[in-house]
Specification:
mainly alpha
Length: about 425
């Protein structure tokens, strides 16, 4: 595909490769902040509490896997000028059917989960104030208003602040528990203790591994990166994102190993486990550290909320746009996806309709136990998403749909194939564990 010779706002030729500079970093920060949720941190803590530093190597491999997947999604957008859903659609109508069901059911359940998760630390910080349902509704409405009235630039700045809070708090807590440096390095040697296989697979595939990885290419376009001249910048941005995620995982493993493993403290599974950890921190280090941790817990949960509200709504708007367009002409709606098309989608009816879907219908689940059928559907669809992403990217980036010079090399193919295999195993396990 020939690159355009148009100039940018700075007068530089659009086809000239940009130098990979820290000043451009942005979409990766958004992915890191969105992808690491409270439940992920609890799962990492539990792994550390059960196996100490032994699974540190799995966190490192997980970081490499996520870098490969997100790079593939970003490369597709920049090399082809087409969105990821446009690529999926070219693989056949089955992708449209899967995504349509997934995005509706997943959004309904996730909306309630995200609002509850954001409310938990507020209730813990202000135990004499309103209850969980009140704060869940408030956080959902704030997320709705923020994404509705702001564009990508403001959204990215707020996400950068939230991930900064997350980073400082998590690293501070890890430093307070005084990590065993020798054991940390020993944990880089691949070892599988008895009963650790599923925790290992979860560490490699779970933290930061959500639909937001697919949204990365949409945020790349919203940033204004619209062709292959931004490829080096995107790759630096992506590495920063998942190295940051890796630091979160390592820090929480340290906390689990040092604070929980030795004392055999058990955490509640799910988001409430972080409230348990806050109580442990208060007993060990005092009220100040516990409250600081709860602030970090809120930043973690709320950044995931507004990240999904923005990124998945962009994907849904693209889904509707492509679904309406004739299949043959779908790729021609934009020569290269960029900030202009992302801006148009953020103002579109489908974008705002999906924002409303994420916010209001899920509020009903705050009063009801999640219906059995929905839990099953959510679990199955969610389990299949990461294998779907890895394997379709492998397909797209080895076909004539991608310009020859930007197709997968041997390393990319190996990483995507291993990712796909890993996520298939995780998928089977997740489906088996559902309350059938």
């Amino acid at each position: 595909m020939a690159e355009t010779s148009a100039t940018t706002g700075t007068g530089e030729p659009a086809s000239r490769p940009r130098r990979s500079s820290w000043k451009y970093i942005g979409p990766g920060i958004v992915v890191a902040a969105t992808g690491v949720g409270a439940g992920d941190l609890v799962a990492t803590l539990i792994a550390g509490s059960k196996f100490g530093y032994t699974l540190m190597w799995a966190a490192v491999i997980g970081c490499v896997v996520k870098i490969s997947l997100a790079e593939a999604a970003g490369r597709w957008h920049l090399a082809t000028g087409r969105t990821l859903f446009d690529g999926w659609r070219s693989l056949g109508p089955w992708t449209t059917v899967y995504f349509a069901i997934y995005v509706v059911v997943w959004g309904f359940i996730y909306g309630a989960t995200a609002m509850s998760s954001s409310a938990l630390p507020i209730v813990a910080l202000f135990p004499d104030g309103p209850g969980l349902k009140f704060w869940a509704i408030v956080t959902g409405l704030i997320g709705l208003a923020f994404v509705w009235f702001n564009r990508y630039a403001v959204f990215e700045k707020v996400m950068t602040v939230l991930i900064g809070i997350m980073f400082v708090v998590v690293v501070y807590v890890a430093a307070r528990v005084v990590p065993d440096v020798g054991a940390s390095f020993a944990g880089l040697l691949p070892v599988l203790p008895d009963g650790s296989l599923l925790y290992t697979l979860g560490l490699i595939g779970g933290v930061g591994g959500t639909i937001t990885m697919a949204a990365y290419g949409y945020w790349v376009n919203a940033k204004g990166w619209s062709n292959t001249s931004w490829m080096k910048v995107m790759r630096l941005d992506n590495r920063v994102a998942y190295i940051t995620t890796g630091v979160f995982v390592v820090a929480m493993l340290i906390v689990g190993a040092e604070l929980l493993h030795a004392s055999q403290v058990a955490l509640t599974s799910g988001d409430r486990g972080l409230v348990d950890l806050g109580e442990v921190l208060e007993d060990r280090f005092g009220t100040g550290t516990a409250k600081l941790f709860l602030v970090g817990f809120f930043a973690t949960s709320f950044s995931s909320l507004i990240g999904v509200w923005h990124g998945v709504s962009l994907m849904f708007a693209d889904f509707v746009e492509r679904f309406r367009a004739p299949a043959a002409g779908a790729a021609k709606t934009e020569e290269h996806e960029g900030a202009r098309s992302a801006e148009r989608r953020q103002r579109s009816l489908p974008f705002r309709a999906y924002l409303l879907w994420l916010t209001f219908p899920p509020m009903t689940l705050l009063w009801l136990d999640e219906p059995f059928g929905l839990v099953i559907a959510y679990g199955v669809l969610g389990a299949f998403f990461m294998p779907f992403l890895a394997l379709t990217l492998l397909w797209l980036l080895n076909s004539s749909r991608t310009p020859a010079q930007w197709r997968n090399g041997a390393v990319s193919n190996l990483m995507l194939a291993l990712s796909g295999l890993l996520f298939v195993v995780l998928c089977v396990q997740q489906v088996r564990e559902l309350p059938w």
